[in-house]
Write a structure and sequence with these properties.
45% helix; 11 helices; globular; Rossmann fold; 268 residues; alpha/beta; eight-stranded mixed beta sheet
Length: 268
């Protein structure tokens, strides 16, 4: 558990797991999420990989610099963290906004990023994704930070989970609130979502790429992930049956099995 300065105005909180002699996998979380949401994956990945998790600017234990934020800013943060940790090359895996950040970093640093995973993510904010991501902005503007995390739940989890495992849902919501982004940081990340556009650039990527999405993702639906695999040469698409936006949290065993098998083939 450490914090390091990646620029004069920004320190990032990060954690490392596993042996440094193994390939490095960097996990990047999404809008308003702290890195502890990756722990169900870390518990499995660390046996075969050197795993780094960190809190993006404005979230968790990292600093909240003044906005505006962009996906490019946050990709630069990621690479600066790797520089500070003396990581020359690695594999990136991002959820939602984290996937967008990972793609931006991979496009700008093809000599350092060896593979890419984009989970429940997207290439360009347009059409339905513009509508759904604007909902997040309205939740924050109209209800504040506590209301935001509560109101977002139906966009993040499946109806079956919301109704059948209510005690676990309450525990997750409590964790989200306890590790919440700052209001300024959350708005900065939402604005980064709304300006995101790598549709024209993504076709230039030339590394192994895994794209996953829940069949019932109401925030960034299957069509958004299909746009990714239609654009990135050779990208593989996995759709989790009845899965929500946060498959990583709702069905970690299924998610871990799919991703770890792919990583063992493509990240060695």
């Amino acid at each position: 558990m450490s914090q390091t300065s990646v620029s004069p105005s920004l320190s990032l909180y990060y954690e490392e797991f596993g042996e440094r002699s193994n390939p490095t996998v960097v996990l990047i979380r999404g809008t308003g999420a702290d890195s502890s949401r990756w722990m169900p994956q870390v518990a499995v990945y660390k046996q075969d990989f050197h795993v780094i998790i960190f809190d993006n600017r404005g979230a968790g234990k990292s600093d909240t610099p003044k906005g505006p934020y962009t996906v490019k800013n946050m990709a630069d943060d990621t690479m600066s963290l790797l520089d500070r940790l003396n990581i020359e090359e690695c594999h990136l895996s991002g959820s939602s906004l984290g996937g967008a950040i990972a793609l931006h970093a991979a496009l700008r640093h093809p000599d350092r990023i060896r593979s890419l995973q984009m989970h429940s993510s997207w290439l360009k904010t347009h059409g339905y994704t513009e509508f759904s991501l604007n909902l997040l902005k309205q939740y924050l503007l109209r209800g504040g930070i506590d209301f935001y995390y509560e109101a977002a739940l139906p966009l993040l989890f499946s109806p079956q989970f919301l109704s059948s495992d209510y005690e676990r849902l309450k525990s997750i919501l409590s964790h989200m609130r306890a590790n919440a982004a700052t209001p300024e940081g959350l708005m900065g990340q939402i604005e980064a979502n709304l300006s995101h556009d790598l549709l024209d650039d993504a076709k230039n990527l030339r590394i192994p790429t895994l794209v996953t999405v829940g069949e019932s993702d109401y925030l960034l639906p299957v069509s958004a992930s299909q746009e990714i695999v239609d654009t990135i040469p050779g990208a593989k698409l996995v759709i989790f049956k009845n899965g929500p936006h946060l498959v990583t949290m709702e069905s970690p065993d299924e998610f871990n099995s799919v991703t770890l098998n792919w990583m063992k083939e493509n990240c060695k």
